[in-house]
C-alpha cells in the first residue's frame, strides 16, 4: 500500500474500470447484475478472447439479459398482444380494476 493513495485522492479507480457492476454501489450492496458479470469474467479468464467468445456465450447472454431485459420485454409484449387478441375475439374480459373502474378506497 503506497504512502499516498493517489487513486483515492483523485477519485479514480484504475483497477475496476472495465467492470460495470464492480464499482462502488450505494449503501455498500452489490449491484443486481454483479453475479452474472462475475460468472462471465471468471469463465473467460485465462482462455483468451477468441476461445472466450465461443465458450462463454451462455454466461454473456445471462449478463446481457440482466442488464437490458430484452427477453423479458419481448415476452411481455407477446403476452399483451395475446391478451388484446383475446379481448377482441370476446374470449376474455379484463376485471374492473384493470379498466380503472374499481370502487374508491377509503
- SSE pattern, N- to C-terminal: HHHHHH
Count of structural domains: 1
Beta-strand content bin:
under 5%
Cα(first) to Cα(last) distance is: 62 Å
Mean pLDDT reading? 83
Number of strands: 0
The chain-level structural class is mainly alpha
List low-confidence stretches: none
Work out the oligomeric state of the chains in this entry.
single chain
Number of distinct helices: 6
Write the layout of secondary structure elements.
Layout (H helix, E strand, L loop, with lengths): L5 H5 L23 H11 L4 H7 L1 H12 L1 H20 L6 H4 L7
Helix pairs in contact: 2-4
Protein name: NADH dehydrogenase [ubiquinone] iron-sulfur protein 5
Subunit structure: Mammalian complex I is composed of 45 different subunits. This is a component of the iron-sulfur (IP) fragment of the enzyme.
Pfam families: Ndufs5
